[in-house]
Structure formats: structure tokens, C-alpha cells
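Each record in this resource describes a single protein on a pair of labelled lines. An example record follows, reproduced without changes.
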Amino acid sequence: MAKEKKKKSISYAKWGYIFIIPFFVVYFIFTLYPQLLTFYNSFFENYREGLSQVGPNFVGFQNYVKLLTPSADGTIDVLKYFGNTLIMWVAGAIPQFVVALLLALLFTSTRLKLKGQTFAKTTIYMPNLIMASAFSMLFFSLFSTVGPINQILMGAGILETGYDFISHKVSARFLVALMNFIMWFGNTTIVLMAGIMGIDESLFESARIDGASSTHVFMDITLPLLRPILVYAAITSLIGGLQMFDVPQVLSKGIGMPNRTTFTVIMLLNNYLGGSKNYGMAGAISVVLFIITGILSIFVFKALNKKEA
């Protein structure tokens, strides 16, 4: 009898491993292998010059040295473009998380019981479904010198002539940050709502019975328990922000107007891949991007996970 039972028993661990095999296969083929190949290519001189192909020739760290060598004006271009990217990401991410957190609290509040929540949630998420290039073209038309925004400002007497938003550093960066905010705050709201709804409701009820104010409930219960979700959302937002490309590419006509102040790291990477097919320099940029992204992600993780004394 014991032998028959042993034969009929199912090894759930075995089936668990079988079911996760496809993920690892796809990961190794489409993620890990390209990453290793990129790192390998970064040590080679491999580009197209006219109709001739140069390389691949092993050059060691020469691509990295060239990448981090200051230009004629004393600036390191790749670090300058990292700065541009971070500024535009931060300018959009701060209001994104503030608004998303407020909306998540409103939508999950059992006291307020707001009406029309389904419509509101659908509306705030819709910009995330629109292609970034189409969104950028829309903003390019809205904020052009003859666009409706300028027409409204001139009609209200605020401006005498059309203001060229894209030709000024502050306004151009503001438009990029604004688009990223509008496109992603709905997605962040949904993520934070899921986190809040995962908190045991009995904790909130106990706090209310004890006479805790809404502020104390938020600061002492909601925020500490929501911290893992906030960390996840912040790190994924950072990774996406450092890979910013399509919005500034379309809005600035691919040249980072004005004076390359909206030029991002991925735009620089795309220049090497699209023009001279310089896989060595593109690989070096990718490796530097990977390292900086990892360092900043660790910093964000540590900053948001500080334990209170």
C-alpha cells in the first residue's frame, strides 16, 4: 500500500520548475545574451565609415577613455547628457508621485466613497496607452509659436508675440517633464492603489477607533506599509527615465534643442547606432548607462528604506 501511494503522489516542485523554464529560456536568449554581447562589443573598434567597414578590432578600454574624455569646451558629453536626462526625469517624477499618491488615497478611501471612480481611473490611465511619439507631436503642435497655447496667451494679453517654448532651455525641459508626468502618473496611481488595498483594513479601523487623525493614519500606517511599493515604483520610474528617448527626440527634432539641453543619453546612443553603426562606442555607452543606473537604483533603494530610529 505504501508503495502504491508513493507512485501516485505528484511532485509539485518538479512541475513548478517546469513551468518557470520558459521564463529563463526567454531571459537568457533575449536579455542576458544581448547584455553580455554588448559588454563584449564595448572593447572593440567596430564601425562603418562611408561604404567601408572598420573592425572589429580589439582596443581594450579605448572606447571608454574616448567616451569620458572632455570635449573642447571642457565638458564630458556623456555626463552632460546624463545630467539632462536626470533633470527632466526628476522634474516629471516628483509631481508624478505626489499626484499619484493623493489620487490613490482618494480612490481607496472608505470614508469618502467618491462617485465615478471607474471613469476617473480609466481617464487618468489613458495617456499611458498613447504612443509617446504621437503624444510628442501633439505637444509640438500645441506649444508651437502659432499653436493654440500661444494664441490663448496672446488673446488674454499675457504675450504680445508667440513664445517659442522649444527654443528656450527651461520651457523645453518643462514640456518634456510635463509629458512624462501626464503619461505615467495614471500608471503610478494604479500601482500605489494596489499597494494601499493590500494593507489590512483592520489596522485603519483600529486607528480610527483610537481617535487617530487622517494625517496620523497616513504617516504611521499607510506610508510605512506602502514603502516597498513606493521603492518599486521609484526604481522602475528611474530606470525608465534614464532610458528617455522618444519624447525629447520628437519634440526637439532629434537634436536636443536648444543647444542640446534636452539631449539624452539614449539619443546619444542612437546616434552611434543609427549613423556610423559604431557598435563599440554604443556598447561603451550602454555599459556606463547600466553602471550608473545600478548605482542610482541602490541609492534610491537605500534612501527610501531608511529605518526610523
About this structure: The mean pLDDT is 88. The first strand starts at residue 44 and ends at 49. The two ends are 59 Å apart (CA to CA).
